[in-house]
Amino acid sequence: MTAGKTTLRLDDFLPYRLSVASNRVSSAIATAYQALFGLRIAEWRLIAVIAEGQGMTQQALGAATRMDKVTVSRAAIALVDRGLVARQPNAQDQRSHLLSLTAAGQDLYESVAPKALELEARIFGGFSPKELAAFRAVLDRLEASAAALDPE
Amino acid sequence: MTAGKTTLRLDDFLPYRLSVASNRVSSAIATAYQALFGLRIAEWRLIAVIAEGQGMTQQALGAATRMDKVTVSRAAIALVDRGLVARQPNAQDQRSHLLSLTAAGQDLYESVAPKALELEARIFGGFSPKELAAFRAVLDRLEASAAALDPE
DNA sequence: CTCAACTGGTAACAGATGAAACTAGGTACG
DNA sequence: CGTACCTAGTTTCATCTGTTACCAGTTGAG
User: Fold this and answer.
1) CATH dotted code for B24-145
2) Which pLDDT tens digit goes with each residue over A57-83?
3) I need a labelling partner for B120 at 20 to 30 A (CA). Which of A105, B55, B127, B129 fits?
4) Domain extents for chain B?
C-alpha cells in the first residue's frame, strides 16, 4: 500500500458534529426563553445560579456559569434594570456587591424552571437514563480535555 | 408533600453542559487551526468539504456544512484571496460558480487533515469506540429533535 | 503608614455573526 | 418574448461577544 492521503469526512468529524448539535440546541433554547420570558441565555443562567445560592458576587457567578466576567456584568445589569435581581453592598469588599433575586425574580424563576425542564425533556427525551448518563459523562471528560489543550 | 417548587441545578441541566463542552472544544480547535494554518473554522470546513467533492456551488457547501450562506460567502472569498480555492463559472447557472481546491489548497488540505484527526484524537481519546459511537448517536438525534423545535 | 501590585466590576473598542436588502441571473406562464 | 416571481451570492447594517483598558477598592511588603 502506498503512502495514501489522509481523508477526512466532515460528517464523521466529532468536533464538527458536537458543534452543530450544540448550536441547534442552544438556538432552540434561546428562542424559547426569549419568546416566553424575554430572557437571554446568560440572564437565565444567572437567575438559575442565584436561585440556588443567594448573595453571590459576580465573580462567583462567573465561575459557576463558566461565563466571562463581562458577560456576567451585562446580564446582571439587565436583570437589575428589570427588577429581577437586587444588589446589596458587600461589607467584606466594597468593590463587589452581592446579588440576590427580588420577589419578582423569584417568581420568574419559579415559572422558568419548570419550562426549562420541560424543554430539556422535549429535546433529550427519547433517550434512556443510561444513554443520558453516558452522554453526560462524555461531556464532562470532554470539557476537561479540551480545556487542557486550550488553557484560555 | 406540599406543592414544592421546581428546582433546577444548572450543572445538571443538559443543554448547559452541552453548550459548555462544545464551546470548549470549538475554542480549542479554533485556536489550533488559527495558529497552525491561519484558518478559521468556517474556512477549514469549506476546504474539507470541497476536498471530498470538487466543483460544488456555495449553496451546496452551505448545506453540507450547515453554515449560513453569508458565512460561506465570506469564507469562500477569503480562501480565493489566499489562492487556496478557485472559482469556475457554472455553465448551468451564471449566478453561481463551482469551487475547487487549487494545488496550494490541496496541499494545505493534506497537511491540515492529519492534524485535525490528531486533534480529534487528543480531545476524544480516552473513550472507547463504543462510547464514541453512542455519543455520536445521541448527537445525531439531538440535532434532529432540536431542529424540529426551532425550525429556524 | 505608603506605595506597588492585584482584583471586582464597567466601559470602550473591534471582530464576528446573521437578518434583511440588493444585484444579477433564471424560470414559468400568458 | 415579456413580465412577474424566484434563487445564488454579496453587501449592508444592527447586534453580540470577547479583549483590552480603566477605575475604584484591597492587600501586602517594607
Assistant:
1) 1.10.10.10
2) 999 999 999 999 999 999 999 999 999
3) B55
4) 24-145
